[in-house]
Amino acid sequence: SFDPSVLEVTGVTAAPLTATWTVTYNVPTPGHLVISLFGSVPLTGSGAIALVQFHVLGALGTQSVLDVTKG
Fold it and tell me: pLDDT of 17-66, one tens digit each?
């Protein structure tokens, strides 16, 4: 989750590790982002699995916690 008065999600893309996978996302409620990834090839290695782009809405000096959870 994140503070929707500070950040707005503008996109989610696959990272190099998941480049052949399909990525879908939605923002069911302001401040919450749900990402789904799926592919036919198992993941191996380590690294980022998705890249999230935000538009910053908040004024200079404002902050938002990014709370990432599984499930």
Answer: 999 999 999 999 999 999 999 999 999 999 999 999 999 999 999 999 99
CB atoms within 10 A of CB 37: 17
**CA–CA distance, 17 with 15 (Å, rounded to integer):** 5
23, 48 Cβ separation under 8 angstroms:
no
6, exposed or middle or buried, with CB in 10 Å at 0-12, 13-18, 19+?
Answer: middle
As a whole number of Å, the CA-based R_g of the chain is 14
Contact 22, 38 (CB under 8 A): yes
Q: What is the value of pTM for the model shown?
A: 0.86
